[in-house]
Design brief:
There is one protein chain. It contains two helices and 13 strands, in the order E-E-E-E-H-E-E-E-E-E-E-E-E-E-H. The protein is mainly beta. The protein has a single domain, classed as Jelly Rolls, CATH 2.60.120. The strands form three sheets. Strands 1-2-10-7-12-5 form a six-stranded antiparallel β-sheet, with no helix packed on it. It has a five-stranded antiparallel β-sheet with strand order 9-8-11-6-13, with no helix packed on it. The chain has a two-stranded antiparallel sheet with strand order 3-4. The radius of gyration is 16 Å and the shape is globular. The relative contact order is 0.25.
Length: 186
């Protein structure tokens, strides 16, 4: 199967089979049957796309239940460091993060389940990111915590003087002050 498990339960890396020849390449970036064979029951309802320049750090964001979202993240152009933090109460990996480089070259994708905060940093001059969501955006349920939380100690691979952070993300609380309604299901 094209899925790689991570040390955080439920968080998966998807590596689609890529067919290359002299004309270029072809791959299925998403096939519901393949995901269902892995036991992933997602019905994606919204695609989000962003374009960002080098040094941009977006996150760490989530939507609370009942509007929580599973996301399938991939890069159309450029390179990012994609980060997911386990925010599920009762999880054996609560507060731990996983990071992976996603790029238009490696074509890897990260499946970020409900209960995780998500963010990324842009490592290339420019990056276009696309992520599928299994729930619609709901402003009232959005939340997040600081990208630079010392308890998380995430290396975003961006020097501090080059980091570009939104005003909204700069004022998010640290993880220890956040109360989510996500519950870990074994």
């Amino acid at each position: 199967m094209p899925f790689i498990t991570t040390e955080l339960p439920g968080l998966l890396v998807f590596e689609p089979k890529v067919f290359e020849d002299s004309r270029g390449y072809f791959f299925e970036s998403y096939n519901e049957n393949i995901f269902q064979q892995q036991g992933i029951q997602c019905h994606f309802v919204q695609d989000n796309q962003s374009s960002s320049s080098y040094g941009v750090i977006r996150g760490l964001h989530y939507q609370l239940n009942p509007h929580a979202q599973t996301k399938l993240v991939r890069v159309l152009a450029g390179r990012i460091l994609d980060v997911a933090v386990d925010a599920r109460n009762g999880s054996p990996t609560y507060g731990r993060y996983f990071s992976i480089e996603l790029s238009s070259d490696n074509k890897k994708q990260l499946l970020v389940p409900k209960g995780f905060a998500h963010g990324f940093s842009v490592l290339s001059e420019r990056a276009e990111v696309l992520y599928k969501c299994d729930g619609f955006y709901n402003k009232e349920s959005e939340g997040g915590f600081r990208f630079d939380d010392p308890a998380l100690n995430i290396d975003w691979q961006i020097p501090a003087n080059n980091a570009i952070i939104s005003d909204k993300d700069k004022i998010l609380p640290f993880l220890e002050a956040v109360k989510t309604n996500f519950e870990y299901q074994d």
